[in-house]
């Protein structure tokens, strides 16, 4: 896999950040190609050829084209297992890691994304917040974080004893959420709060945040 | 074991008959053949204490038993007496149903919790069937709120179905259960189901993510509104139906283009990427009036006919009907 890796995306896109965090953790060289979403670059044919869903990020390495941030991170983590941070755990523990990756994708992300949209992005774009949606999703997030609190009381990280993709995948939405009123839901749970402080202070993540400034 | 004259998947031994077969085995002090399997993990012990879970089966194996310190010896019901009553039945005459017993034994090792009617449960069942892996379904009576009770929450903290257990692990989230099964039984059944090299796997992963993130939400919402809500006496939300149909149309246009370039989503072969779409797709096509979204698109229609015609999926549909 000597060919250069290319990531097409936007520094403020949570999904793009997910891939960048992974590449940084793995200490891998890559080319970042910004996609100007404001002018609809992601809907143009040249981009659709790499990601037919017209979303960021998209990934290329030689002839390989991939989309969906979590498929990209898994490809990188498995393909470069020996380099940088081990983001996976070989053998049977991989199954448990996989469970918590799915939890992030299906339980946490939909709810956290909606809250971030309402409380972070809409104000940025001057669109009024839908308070009913905020209330509904805060209630959902409360239930999810209760499960996380119990899990993190037994396990240092979500997937197991070490920092893995299961934790990394949360970084973009957590970072964003911590800048909104949702912060209180994380702060009020001791194990969750400690875990958030731990993962968001990782140098690889800080580099991604710096890119966005 | 899966090859042979007897169709083991179609014809598993029912517990009562198994009991009879085992009861007829003669005792012998000589050979160590056909020891009975005894391995139950702590989790299964916990489960056995759950009155909501009704199971009666024989724990059977035909390999040499390898009891270890970690394994507890438990005889469950029937021919071998109650817990602690060790009747050692060695049998020099291997019964004709040898392989059927062994198959049933393996079935005991893979437990899927939840009703086949659930889309996520059926995703796991289809995968197990594709991989030719025997299993038991452990009923979870959701109408009685069994999925929210403490014993169940121990194995699925979000109180949803499915959950999965085998002799060594407890899992939830259907797609990760399926990945585990494909990995554990890589050499069984459909060997290419999750790809045989990293590039194939990456291609499958991206379409499984697309299914989960782009296809699943709008199709799931439509299935709920149109197929389940009426049965549950929940009023339909016309706004949600319209919104999700619109979203789904856009997604299906993308699938249509993709399936014009490729026979299946991840390439030329049927993979888990396609299978993952079967549960929601099936309800959409067969239980709502939105089937035309699939059938009116040429490539999508062709793909749908092919994947829904797979033996494994047809068996899941059968299981749903008889549940």
From TrEMBL, chain A:
Its main location: cytoplasm. It is an enzyme of class 2 (transferase). It catalyses: RX + glutathione = an S-substituted glutathione + a halide anion + H(+). It holds the Pfam family GST_N. Residues 3-84 form the GST N-terminal domain. InterPro entries: Glutathione-S-Trfase_C-like, Glutathione-S-Trfase_C_sf, Glutathione_S-Trfase, Glutathione_S-Trfase_N, GST_C, GST_Phi_C, Thioredoxin-like_sf. The keyword Transferase applies. It is found in: Cytoplasm, Cytosol. Residues 90-213 form the GST C-terminal domain. It comes from the Eukaryota. GO terms for cellular component: cytosol. GO terms for biological process: glutathione metabolic process; toxin catabolic process. GO terms for molecular function: glutathione binding; glutathione transferase activity. Keywords: Cytoplasm, Detoxification, Transferase. The keyword Lipid metabolism does not apply. Its EC number is 2.5.1.18. Belongs to the GST superfamily. Phi family. This is glutathione transferase.
UniProtKB/TrEMBL annotation, chain B:
InterPro entries: Glutathione-S-Trfase_C-like (IPR010987), Glutathione-S-Trfase_C_sf (IPR036282), Glutathione_S-Trfase (IPR040079), Glutathione_S-Trfase_N (IPR004045), GST_C (IPR004046), GST_Phi_C (IPR034347), Thioredoxin-like_sf (IPR036249). CDD domains: GST_C_Phi (cd03187), GST_N_Phi (cd03053). It is an enzyme of class 2 (transferase). GO terms for biological process: glutathione metabolic process; toxin catabolic process. It catalyses: RX + glutathione = an S-substituted glutathione + a halide anion + H(+). Coiled coil: none annotated. Keywords: Cytoplasm, Detoxification, Transferase. Its main location: cytoplasm. The keyword Cytoplasm applies. Its EC number is 2.5.1.18. GO terms for cellular component: cytosol. It is found in: Cytoplasm, Cytosol. Signal peptide: none annotated. It holds the Pfam family GST_N. Residues 197-323 form the GST C-terminal domain. Belongs to the GST superfamily. Phi family. This is glutathione transferase. The lineage of its organism: Eukaryota, Viridiplantae, Streptophyta, Embryophyta, Tracheophyta.
């Amino acid at each position: 896999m000597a060919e250069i890796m290319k990531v097409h995306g936007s520094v403020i896109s949570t999904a793009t950040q997910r891939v960048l965090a992974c590449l940084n953790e793995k200490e891998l060289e890559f080319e970042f190609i910004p996609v100007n979403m404001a002018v609809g670059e992601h809907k143009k044919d040249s981009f659709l050829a790499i990601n037919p869903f017209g979303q960021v990020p998209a990934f290329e390495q030689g002839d390989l084209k991939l989309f969906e941030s979590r498929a990209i991170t898994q490809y990188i983590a498995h393909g470069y297992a020996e380099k940088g941070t081990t983001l996976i755990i070989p053998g049977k523990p991989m199954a448990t890691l996989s469970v918590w990756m799915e939890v992030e994708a299906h339980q946490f992300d939909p709810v956290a994304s909606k809250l971030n949209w309402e409380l972070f992005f809409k104000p940025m774009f001057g669109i009024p917040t839908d308070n009913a949606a905020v209330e509904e999703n805060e209630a959902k997030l409360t239930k999810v974080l209760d499960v996380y609190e119990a899990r993190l009381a037994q396990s240092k990280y979500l997937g197991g004893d070490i920092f893995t993709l299961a934790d990394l995948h949360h970084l973009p939405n957590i970072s964003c959420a911590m800048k909104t009123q949702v912060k209180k839901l994380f702060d009020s749970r001791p194990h969750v709060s400690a875990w958030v402080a731990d993962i968001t202070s990782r140098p690889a993540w800080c580099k991604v945040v710096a890119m966005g400034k | 074991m899966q090859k042979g004259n007897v169709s083991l998947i179609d014809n598993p031994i029912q517990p009562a008959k198994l009991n009879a077969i085992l009861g007829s085995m003669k005792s012998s002090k000589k050979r160590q053949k056909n020891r009975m399997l005894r391995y139950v993990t702590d989790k299964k012990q916990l489960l056995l204490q759950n009155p909501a879970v009704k199971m009666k089966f024989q724990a059977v194996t035909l390999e040499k038993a390898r009891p270890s310190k970690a394994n507890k010896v438990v005889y469950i019901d029937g021919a071998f007496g109650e817990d602690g009553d060790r009747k050692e039945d060695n049998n020099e005459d291997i019964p004709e149903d040898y392989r059927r017993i062994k198959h049933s034994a393996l079935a005991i090792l893979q437990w899927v919790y939840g009703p086949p009617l659930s889309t996520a449960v059926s995703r796991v069942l289809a995968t197990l069937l594709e991989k030719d892996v025997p299993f038991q379904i452990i009923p979870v009576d959701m109408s009685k709120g069994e999925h929210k009770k403490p014993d169940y929450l121990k194995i699925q903290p979000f109180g949803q179905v499915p959950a999965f257990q085998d002799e060594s692990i407890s899992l939830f989230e259907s797609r990760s259960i399926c990945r585990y099964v494909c990995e554990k039984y890589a050499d069984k059944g459909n060997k290419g189901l999750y790809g045989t090299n990293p590039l194939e796997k990456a291609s499958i992963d991206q379409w499984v993510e697309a299914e989960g993130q782009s296809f699943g939400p709008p199709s799931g919402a439509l299935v709920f509104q149109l197929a389940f809500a009426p049965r549950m006496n929940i009023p339909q939300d016309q706004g949600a139906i319209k919104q999700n149909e619109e979203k789904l149309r856009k997604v299906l246009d993308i699938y249509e283009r993709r399936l014009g370039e490729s026979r299946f989503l991840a390439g030329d072969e049927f993979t888990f990427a396609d299978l993952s779409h079967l549960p929601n797709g099936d309800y959409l096509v067969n239980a709502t009036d939105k089937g035309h979204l699939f059938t009116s698109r040429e490539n999508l229609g062709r793909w749908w006919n092919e994947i829904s015609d797979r033996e494994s999926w047809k068996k899941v549909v059968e299981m749903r009907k008889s549940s």
